[in-house]
Design a protein that fits this description.
Elements (H helix, E strand, L loop, with lengths): L1 E3 L2 E3 L11 H10 L21
Antiparallel strand pairs: 1-2
Length: 51
Amino acid sequence: MEVQGKEIVIRRIEKKPREGWAEACAAMHERGEDELLISDTLEDTSFEWEW
C-alpha cells in the first residue's frame, strides 16, 4: 500500500508470508547472531502465582 498524490494504491502481495525466513535465520545462526534479545525466564519474585 502506498500513497500517490491524493490516492491510496493497494497492490497484490507477490511473496508468500515468511518467504525466505528459513534461509535468513540459518544465515543468522551461522554468523552467531541468533541470541535471544530478552530473557525467556521470569525472575520476578515480588508476587506469588495463583493457580
